[in-house]
Q: What sequence folds into this?
């Protein structure tokens, strides 16, 4: 299963989102530290390293931006430890 698919599954299962978009931004970061082929020490072997997540879920109602980001980071802790180098998050409740 791809990293993108794992992210989709984890967020879908936990948040029951009304809208979920996961964008693999990895190709925009070619040559950056941590990207395969960059030649930098600590380069990750996976090609899926940078993502943008746009999610709308009732689970975010009444939560601050920081709380929403912490929820997503906790749900994706394994991916963040295992090769995802950057994660941009847009988390909204319905009606935001």
A:
């Amino acid at each position: 299963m791809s990293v993108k698919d794992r992210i989709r599954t984890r967020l879908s299962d936990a948040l029951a989102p009304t809208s979920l978009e996961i964008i693999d931004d990895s190709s925009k970061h070619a040559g950056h530290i941590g990207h395969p082929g960059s030649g930098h020490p600590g380069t990750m072997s996976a090609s899926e390293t940078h993502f943008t997540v746009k999610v709308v879920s009732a689970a975010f109602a009444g939560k601050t931006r920081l709380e929403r980001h912490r929820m997503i980071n906790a749900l994706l802790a394994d991916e963040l430890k295992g090769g995802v180098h950057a994660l941009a998050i847009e988390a909204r409740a319905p009606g935001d």
About this structure: The chain has three helices and three strands.
